[in-house]
Amino acid sequence: MSQEQVSYLELLARGAATEAYDRPVLLARASGAGPEALAGLERAKRLALRVRAELEGRRRREAELSALFETAHDLAGLRDLDAVLRAIVQRARSLLGTEVAYLSLNDPVAGDTYMRVTEGSVSARFQQVRLGMGEGLGGLVAQTARPYVTESYFDDPRFQHTATIDSAVGDEGLVAILGVPLTLGSQVIGVLYAADRRARVFEREQVALLGSLAAHAAVAIDTANLLAETRSALAELERANDIIREHSGVIERASEVHDRLTELVLRGGGVPDVASAVSEVLGGTVAFVEGAGTTAPVADGHAIRDGDHWVAAVSAGGETFGALVLSGQSDLDPVDQRTLERAALVTSLLLLARRSAGEAEQRVRGELLDDLLDAPDRDRRLLRERAARLRTDIDAPHVVLAARIDRGGAGSEGESGVRESADRQRLWSAASHLAATRHGLASARDGGTVLLLPLGRGESAAELARQTAKHLGGAVREPVTVGASAPVEAPLARPGQVAIAYGEARRCLDALRLLHRSGEGAAAEDLGFLGLLLADGRDIEGFVDRTIGEVVAYDARRGTDLVRTMDAYFASGMSPARTKDDLHVHVNTVAQRIERIGRLLGPDWQSPARALEIQLALRLHAMAPAVAR
Fold first, then answer.
1. Is it the case that residue 534 has pLDDT exceeding 50?
2. Are residues 528 and 613 in contact, defined by beta-carbon separation less than 8 angstroms?
3. Span 367-378, mean pLDDT?
4. Are 296 and 320 a contacting pair, CB within 8 Å?
5. Pairing of strands 441-445, 148-150
6. pLDDT value for 626
7. 550: Cα separation from own chain's centroid
8. CB 484 within 8 A of CB 508
9. What is the arithmetic mean of pLDDT over 162-190?
10. How confident is the model at residue 353 (pLDDT cuts 50, 70, 90)?
11. Sheet order of strands, 319-327 included
12. Order of strands, edge to edge, in the sheet holding 480-484?
């Protein structure tokens, strides 16, 4: 073996660079070696370079296998999916020595693939891009489950270019791209990429290396997903166990409240006792709100949330007595809600029992009112004693009210009769309860209900009618129309005046229904000139004062002539020009007076309805001196 050939072995031994293998040939040529010697050196050089390439390939494969082993070991130790994906992309970039590496995952719902993790990327648009199946190199890999490589992305016609994808790739400056599928069985779950910002040829070994890494990555992703699902399942089991324990406690509390409520009913307890027992069991404060005292919507048989409270309706037979209101508990589970609903049911049973006991008293009240209406000439002393036993002071001012349910819709004749009978019973029941509460009287009459209620201090008949309509409507949950009489100073002072007042209340009720004001309450004073015709007292002075009193008072204070101006204005057909001729004043004076009248009476004083009432009031006002004489 020649010295020059030995030098090649030395170059191989120390792993010299490729260009170092030309030096022995050059030195031999410089020293004048013959053709045969030079040819032998060339053969030795080629053989040494082949050996070097083989050794280099072996070292590279050994490094790659070592890197794959390390990758598998690292991935096996990861538990968080995001950490798994970042480790995959970082190792891919490191193994292939590329400037950029990234990973996309398929979205089976949207039917596309989206960028999940990037390493070395600088473009925000590229990091957020989504690829449809078959679009771009990655979309083609995801669709075909085969690796694809391109030396120059923009010059490659094998895959579908789109403006969105090309713009994102252009922003990142990528040129050479290698993409391999991440598969689980036959399903592609994503694509792993390695890319450079310059033209580059990816060798077959590099494609295989990235494919091997992708296989490890797919298994790691699947493992991470399974681990996440397992953790989720364990968490669900823990929550279910907590719910079971909690429900066990709730059921025990429900059994406790059931026993306590049963005991309360058997020993004759009342509504406050029920509220107290439920408060202890539910850990809040329960109160019974009677009648329309609660504005919360209530559903029959169910507890509902109203702000920071829970409300359960207390009702029976279509009539709402009120509601149980729980405070201090923002959340109730279904069992606790059922406990509140059961307490509401027990409360309704107690109230029905109390009502049954009070119905005898209500019948007595109805009989007394019937006697005041039909037989006022009976012994007043006996009538007064009967009223005193009912705690009703019939020597104080009272108002007679006529009430009736106004229900829309129609049914068959038989159905209508049954419904009307039920409506009358419900209305009488609610009216009797109201009368007992206000120390008045109530009776069923003429298809509706009549009430005799005391008039409170400073209260008018119209206000009492409106309050009664609202209360009864809320109790029976149907529109209830109420007509009121003028106040009766003392029902026993003059025989027959209660019956006369009832007639006025009935006429007022009929007028409200004809005026399509069903569900309202009103007295004659609310109905303008129509009320003047309906009222038995014919309060002409009150009608005039309510209609044009402001103008009359203004004339009296200021010495003006607005009343006469109004009379002339209406007499002239509401023409300012003819009015000024009648009054012998300038038309501007008429305009100023009309403007003043509008400020006193309101902007609608010339509307047909108001104008009619005002003209009638003017006539009655003009007749007042003659009437007084």
1. no
2. yes
3. 78
4. no
5. unpaired
6. 42
7. 49
8. yes
9. 91
10. low
11. 285-290, 319-327, 309-316, 303-306
12. 441-445, 448-454, 398-405, 480-484, 521-523
